[in-house]
Amino acid sequence: MTRGNQREVDRARAQARAAKHKKTSKDENKARAKTALSSAEIMRQKQVEAEKRKAAEAEKKAKAEEKKKYIKFIRRTLTDFYRMEAPDKVDNVGKIMEKFAGKWARLQKGLEKTYAEKAPDLSDEAFQKVKTKMAF
Fold first, then answer.
1. CA-to-CA distance for 134 and 81, rounded, in angstroms?
2. Mind listing the pLDDT tens digit for each residue in 65-119?
3. Are 72 and 122 in contact (CB under 8 A)?
4. What are the angstrom distances between the C-alpha of 91 and each of 59, 74, 94, 99, 130?
5. Do the beta carbons of residue 97 and residue 75 sit within 8 Å?
6. Taking the CB of residue 127, how many other CB atoms lie within 10 A of it?
7. For FRET with 14, which of 27, 59, 87, 127 sits at 20 to 30 Å CA-CA?
8. Per-residue pLDDT reduced to its tens digit, 43-56
9. How many angstroms separate the CA atoms of 75 and 62, rounded?
10. DSSP one-letter string for 69-108
11. What is the pTM (predicted TM-score) of this model?
């Protein structure tokens, strides 16, 4: 290698090192900082949305659990009522539950019409009163 050629190679290496370790300007630093802040803000928003989703899922799960407990309450109440008033209908509780699924007020009215004051209270208020006492 000739001396002139060696200088060119050394210059190229030096330029590569300088580019690698180049100091950034203030404007470039500001742009990087701004990008970092916007990225952090985006992450915070994503975390907030994720927390909201988790809270909504937990609430939905709690409502489903409450609905299951309410249905168990109605089944127990009807079974106990029919045991006392009409033992021959105890076996039909399942069919009655299927027929009136979600129409508990209609079932309540029918029971009140048939049994008058002896009819059990299937209302949500009655459930709220006894749900802490009942073992599900």
1. 16
2. 998 998 898 898 889 888 888 888 888 889 988 998 888 889 888 888 888 888 8
3. no
4. 35, 15, 7, 14, 24
5. yes
6. 20
7. 27
8. 899 999 999 999 99
9. 20
10. HHHHHHHHHHHHHHHHH-GGGGGGHHHHHHHTTT-HHHHH
11. 0.61
